[in-house]
Design goal:
By secondary structure, the protein is of the alpha+beta class. It has two domains: 87 residues, no CATH class; 114 residues, Trna Endonuclease, Chain: A, domain 1, CATH 3.40.1350. 54% of the residues lie in helices and 12% in strands. It contains eight helices and five strands; from the N terminus they run ααααααβββαββα. It has a five-stranded mixed sheet. Strand 4 and strand 5 form a beta hairpin. Helix 1 packs across helix 5. The longest helix is centred in the middle third of the chain and has 34 residues.
Length: 235
């Protein structure tokens, strides 16, 4: 049986794609608070054609956040103009400076540091967050590292078992002292992974932010406590 060919509507940007993607992600120009929860919107729409989707999007889409506003073609164009400004006025000058100073030693040290040093730092952070933070706050929960064979292992670092087969998930993200973790939002792929985890284990996945091994978003304790009680009542 021949493989069904799916028509693609996406534009191709060639080598410019990497620059556009980097700047768009860095300056958070495609987040739900800018363009809406697009995957949730298109699933709600269930369009048969791209024209149906385009019309439905502009009829129904709005940004998320404390002060949502209706998305229009003009607002998307404005985001594109902001992207251009960021690339030409910030990204290109920064990269030119980095390229002019880059050495072979930098590349060798970067790969070694990424593989050895940062991996070990991340391992210590995870252990501290779980053993010194979560496990002490929730002594009746059994925390286990996500097994490599788990379908969602890339997005879930630890499982918190309420019983033998019911658990919630934990994803640990490092933040620097200057980072604002309130701006972070999970990607659509990650949201799908979290939903698949919930279907399998019953519990939600929570993002815990680590700052030097300490839990930065301490309000997560209260949220996890509510989830534990909910899962206990389901048993």
């Amino acid at each position: 049986m021949s493989k069904k060919e799916i028509k693609r509507y996406s534009l191709e940007f060639g080598k410019k794609e990497k620059v556009l993607n980097y700047a768009c992600q860095t300056y958070q120009l495609s987040r739900p608070n800018k363009v809406g929860a697009v995957m949730a919107l298109i699933r709600e729409c269930q369009p048969q054609t791209i024209e149906q989707w385009e019309k439905w999007y502009f009829d129904n889409a709005s940004t998320t956040g404390k002060q949502p506003f209706k998305i229009t073609k003009e607002s998307l164009f404005e985001l594109g103009e902001r992207l251009y400004t960021k690339i030409t006025e910030v990204v290109i000058p920064e990269w030119k400076e980095a390229f002019s100073k880059l050495t072979k030693e930098d590349c060798v040290n970067y790969i070694y540091n990424l593989t050895i040093n940062r991996t070990f730092d991340g391992y210590l952070r995870e252990k501290s967050v779980v053993n010194d933070g979560l496990a002490k706050r929730f002594p009746d929960i059994r925390f286990e590292e996500s097994p490599s064979e788990l379908d969602h292992a890339g997005d879930i670092d630890y499982l918190g078992y309420v019983s033998d087969d019911i658990a919630f998930g934990i994803q640990i993200k490092p933040v620097t002292s200057k980072a604002n973790f309130g701006n972070y939002s999970a990607s659509e792929r990650m949201k799908d992974s979290f939903e698949a985890f919930k279907n399998e284990f019953g519990g939600n996945v929570f993002i815990v932010y680590s700052l030097d091994g300490e839990i930065a978003n301490e309000n997560i304790f209260e949220v996890i406590e509510l989830e534990i009680q909910h899962l206990i009542n389901k048993k």
